[in-house]
Amino acid sequence: MIRVASGQGFWGDDLEAPVRQVEGGPIDYLMLDYLAEVTMSIMQKQRSRDAAAGYARDFAGLMERIFPACVERGIKVVTNAGGVNPRECARAVAAAGQRAGVEGRARIGVVTGDDLMDRLDHLLAAGHPLGNMDTGEPLLPIRDQVRSANVYLGARPIVESLARGALVVVTGRSTDTALTYAPLMHEFGWARDAYDLQASGVVAGHINECGAQASGGNCLAEWWAVPDLAQVGFPIIEAAPDGTFVVTKHPGLGGAVTLRTVKEQILYEMGDPATYVTPDVTADFTTIRLSEEGPDRVGVRGIRGRPPTPFLKVSIAYAAGYKAVGTLVYAWPDAAAKARAAAAILRQRLDRLGLTFERVLVELVGWDSAHGTLAGDPPPDIPEVQLRVAVRSDDRGAVERFSREIAPLVLTGPPSVTGFAGGRPRVQEIMAYWPALIDRSVVEPGLSVDFVEV
Question: I want to staple 67 with a disulfide (CB 3.0 to 4.6 A). Which of 100, 117, 187, 236 is the partner?
């Protein structure tokens, strides 16, 4: 049996969760998932300003705390914290290991080859259109707006790193699930064509990838009954060589692992459940069988898999104009009426200035924001609402002028503004998502595994 513990579900997740996983009981692997689609563009922007940036800086500080325990107990760490700069991330982790006193006792594997930015023009010229998977549009017309382009990698380079003695494996844009099933492939020696076994690993990875979402966090079903979320225990996969596994957590920590919490996570971000595509296998989620195995223990078995497709998915982020969001809070009486009047006044002022926007979004937070526009008028006794106005435009100057028109409403609009927060709205560049496919044969030969010694 191999225990793979989840320690992060996104960049910015609970920084104490990995520490609780290492200190709370026996584990063999700690997987840390830091990346989302927008995260890559943020990291790429950071690297454009500083060649040594572009990765999850939190990770090095975390490793400094847990390195001694990982070395002493042989706990291996697998993460995609490398973002768009995995080599610099590995160097920072090596420095953290030296500060933690484990110099000479740990090896860091670095997986590269997922970043296509330097190859993008060559690939387009060679006949790879990188068409948008949703619209079919070719990438070439917006090529100059592209800020990041990264292929989702699977388990194989991680397995290679582990086989060559890495205690820590740092990748760029691997799939979230690979961070869990790569250790299982390595430990159990699963063959590349053992598709049922790999599909089981993918399901385990899918349950693990969002951290506490599988152990009671963000839980829709009876959320009020989930105990002690203040120190929630993140999920742990206890896997067997035959592909069956149990989802559990450390005893003594908060949260809950139940059929409901696991089912909710399985359904998360689910398209066609029979065709969950990864670089290594296509998993059939309709074959999953769950069983309650005891308190905070859910058994998973029965999963079937099919061969992978000849393509890999590419996550592309491109600049799509500018936005700004301003807020004002209006208090009773007639809070909603005041907020709507303020929005109308603001729009009239923008029109007089000759400003046009691709979109203007007006919401009354506390009435019609979470569920969209509601029929009828809000009741007059609402104690307070937040007026939220957002604009989007290709013209940065127009958005900047909008940002200067919010604050004047405090004294030149309806009364009872309170809680004016954040000052003048900040103009932000919009990063849009462009999903594409590419022939794996032009990517996989460029993958590499290097090492940094602590």
Answer: 100
Cα distance between residue 281 and residue 200, in whole Å: 10
pLDDT of amino acid 380: 78
Q: Is 246 left (phi over 0), alpha (psi -120 to 50) or beta?
A: beta
Q: What's the domain range around 359?
A: 320-432
Q: How far apart are CA 283 and CA 273, in angstroms?
A: 8
Q: What percent of the chain has pLDDT over 70?
A: 99
pLDDT value of residue 420: 67
- Contact status, residue 416 vs residue 26, Cβ threshold 8 Å: no
Residues 291, 345: one domain?
A: no
Kindly report, residue by residue over 282-340, the tens digit of the pLDDT. 999 999 999 999 999 999 999 999 999 999 999 999 999 999 999 999 999 999 999 99
Whether the per-residue pLDDT at 22 is higher than 70: the answer is yes
Say whether both 181 and 305 belong to one domain: yes
* Residue 449, helix vs strand vs coil: strand
Give the span between the Cα atoms of 450 and 110, in whole angstroms: 5
| Closest alpha carbon to 346 in 365, 367, 325, 331 | 325
Q: Is the dihedral of CA 428, 433, 439, 441 positive or negative?
A: positive
My answer on whether 286 and 409 are in the same domain is no
- Domain membership of residue 450 (yes or no) is no
Q: How confident is the model at residue 136 (pLDDT cuts 50, 70, 90)?
A: very high
For residues 4 and 239, the answer to whether their CB atoms sit within 8 Å is: yes
Q: Where are the beta strands (DSSP E) in 191-331?
A: 236-239, 245-248, 276-277, 282-284, 289-294, 297-301, 304-306, 311-331
**Rounded mean pLDDT of 429-443?**
95
CA distance linking residue 316 with residue 143, whole number of Å? 10
- Token digits of residue 54: 């572009």
CA distance 61 to 93: 8
Total count of domains within the chain: 2
Same structural domain, 98 and 216: yes
Name the residue among 243, 246, 260, 241 with its Cα closest to residue 293.
246
Q: Is pLDDT larger for residue 431 or for residue 293?
A: 293
CATH code at 360?
3.30.70
At 421, the pLDDT band (50, 70, 90 cuts) reads: low
- Please tell me whether residues 37 and 70 are part of one structural domain: yes
pLDDT tens readout for residues 246-259 = 999 999 999 999 99
For residues 212 and 327, membership in a common domain is answered with no
The continuous run of DSSP H or E covering 188 comes out as helix 178-188
Domain closes at, from 255, 275, 309 = 309
Same domain as 299, residue 398: no
Alpha helix ranges (H) inside 128-173: 156-163
